[in-house]
Amino acid sequence: MLDRNEISRRGYLKEDFRLFHLKDSRAQTVDYHYHAFDKLILLLGGKVTYVVEGVTYFLRPWDMLLVGHDLIHRPIIDPAEPYERVVVWLGREWLERRSDPGEALSACFDTTRQRGFHLLRFDAERRLHYMQRIQQMEAAQRDRGFGAARMADTLCQQLLIDVNRDVLRSRTAQEERDSYRVDPKMEEILRYILSHLEEDLTVETLSRQFFISRYYLMHRFKAVTGYTVHQYITQKRLLRAGELIRSGVPVMKAAEQAGFTEYSTFLRAFRSTFHMSPREFR
User: Fold this and answer.
1) CATH of residue 240
2) Domain of 19?
3) Structure pTM?
4) pLDDT tens digits, residue range 155-169?
């Protein structure tokens, strides 16, 4: 069973999208968590390190981090400097409605997920461009005049078009090795888990698959990702089952396709994680 204090869903988005401009001067600790929506984080000031699915990113001011839905992540904030950032929450249904055939606004999140690298880094000209975009969105959110909601919606779409173009142009810091840290073996194991959720995944099977000791796997996985092998696999299976259920797959079949061999185990874990039954979740 998952420890809800270590991995939990954080934040609920009732609108199509939301923009936050936040500045904290006090130290804060945020546990590992995930969201049902996609999220952009634009760092404006402070020292913060982000861990996303086992990859550690050392952010600089004006770096942008793309955190897709269901990705387990955690910020590590240095209290020595005020932490200022713009965060944009994006509803997945809204992204789908606003997309054109062959040009999904969520493509930037899909691409960074596939690459296993979620950081964008810009030159001075591009920083100014994003600053203007953010200022326009903030002004639209404060506006109460005619068409304000439509204007905010349009500006958010424009922001996503910019992000998608920058992702396609690979404006990342992936070549700057001091911008992130990754354990190649653990990254390989994480990718293997995500593509084999329906199979038998245990510490024993993984240690045999990757020719490493059971003890090393357990301790290194925890050190790199912040959670145990069992917690990670169970959480990803639950999220996969949720995706299948919402797409119309029958509950028992979704549980089986996500890798659960016992329905009662799946049901208990699902209720503990989502605080509702699979049918209510649908």
Assistant:
1) 1.10.10.60
2) 8-179
3) 0.83
4) 999 999 999 999 999
